[in-house]
Amino acid sequence: MVNEQNELIKRRFEELEEIKKLGVNPYPHRYDITHKASELIKNFTDPKDETETEARKKDIVSIAGRISAIRRMGKATFCHIKDDTERIQLYLKKDEVGETPYAILKMLDIGDIIGVKGYVFRTKTGEISVHCVALELLTKSVFPLPVVKEEITESGEKIIHDAFADVELRYRQRYIDLIVNENVKGTFLSRTKIIKSIRGTLEKYGFLEVETPTLQSIYGGANARPFVTHHNALDIPLYLRISNELFLKRLIVGGFSRVFEFVKDFRNEGIDRTHNPEFTQVEWYQAYGDYYDSMKLFEEAVEQACIAVHGTTKIKYQDVELDLKAPWKRIKMVDAIKEKTGLDVLSMKKDDIILYMKQNSIEFDTKLSHSKGLVISSLFEALCEEDLVQPAFVIDHPIDTTPLCKPLREYTLAQLGEMKKDPEQVIFVERFEPYINKWEVGNAYTELNDPVLQRKLFEETHPMDDDFIRAIEVGMPPTTGVGMGVDRIVMLLTNSVNIRDVLLFPLMKPLDK
In this prediction, what percent of the chain has a pLDDT beyond 90? Predict the structure, then answer.
């Protein structure tokens, strides 16, 4: 296969030189087009009579695209080109396009990019085509595209040999993947529709799109390992953001009541089917709201994005039927555990919960065993996530899971004071995680705006950001905030099994490694 490809490349370079000898530049600077292929196909109507047929021959169009098929017949050639909208057939005759262009046509290959002028007609077989009167080579491709080959066995079975079926190669050479695999481009067109829809939903409710720093001197807003770099002029370490949360909250303090941002976040952690070190989130913050407001907005944003792509709220992901129509189910974390196991974890001692996990071979990080709240959260993750197929909000998480969230409003200050003294008491916070198809697709809080408690929790669990604490001391109004995992939403709505399928250029290990 390598030798065959090398021979093809060698032949194409030879063709390139022959084209140059004809005095033709195989890489011109520009080309004027008047139509896209999809326009010509959509708008074509058959002429009513011979007079109209002759008139249409004067209606010259200009299109350009990459050759996807070619069939030579002596002094006439049929080929197909594909632009960014559609594939269309061309009909070229030597005595109409000219001797030199037709000589060049004989040296063209699948993958070359050409521009043609001509009139639109329908062939005897019924295919809408362009009868060309001019041809110009726009790009000579010297690296052959992979092609699908069909083989018929002796038993009559058809076997398809796809030269570009290697998934890893497709991710590494996405430019080829987009050319040869029709469905791939569709995935990314859908991704754009989804992001546009989410943005539209937020803007409908008065949210302002903003921009915050990617390079941060103090990383925060999530519990994750950052990428570290160094700024030479200032001689300080900097971090690629793991979250934009703390900056968006500063804007709430500054008087913007509703803000959002689509961001690339970076976490120096593992890669798997649903994780990439660089990923897209949208975060939004709403002053004077709580996590109930965020639940309504989250489910509406996803519901509308689904409609934007599919025209309905009902979709099929792999073999699973999902209905994203709002409202979604809401369930407390401890109630989800009780439904699954029958355990009332609130009335159990921490060590008894750990014993249950050991007896049932439930693995969890023993570093978390110091906290009853983290043990409860670990039990939920191990047992309950697999049942969360249809959209649901898991609400009211232990305070140990986040330092940025308000305790449940049902607690009095006296109760909170007493509960903090008892390690067997768990304080729950107004946090939710939305789940679809067993995946956690976001995170949201009723935001903590008590500067004294915020400083204390930062000291215990988070890199200290004194400027953020100062902002909270200035005064942040009651606020709710949301982070939505855009890549996972796109996976769901495009029926993609791997996060790399919805990233144009996912991170890949270098081949020499």
Answer: 77
Which residues make Cβ contacts (< 8 Å) with residue 457, sequence separation at least 6?
A: 403, 404, 448
Task: State mean pLDDT over 387-405.
Answer: 94
pLDDT digits (tens, 9 = 90+) for 407-435: 999 998 888 888 888 889 999 999 999 99
Pair of tokens at residue 460: 């215990």
Q: Are residues 255 and 324 in the same domain?
A: yes
- Contact between 303 and 283 (Cβ < 8 Å): no
- The C-alpha atoms of residue 101 and residue 231 are separated, in whole angstroms, by 55
* Cβ density class 43-77: b for 16+ within 10 Å, e for less: eeeeeeeeeeeeebeeeebbbbbbbbebeeeeeeb
Q: How many domains does the chain have?
A: 3
Q: Tell me, yes or no, whether 318 lies in a domain.
A: yes
Range of the domain at 46: 2-139
* 160 pLDDT more than 60: no
Q: What is the pLDDT of residue 58?
A: 93
Predicted confidence (pLDDT) at residue 150 exceeds the cutoff of 70? no
Instruction: For residues 202 and 313, state if they share a domain.
Output: yes
Is 433 among the domain residues?
Answer: no
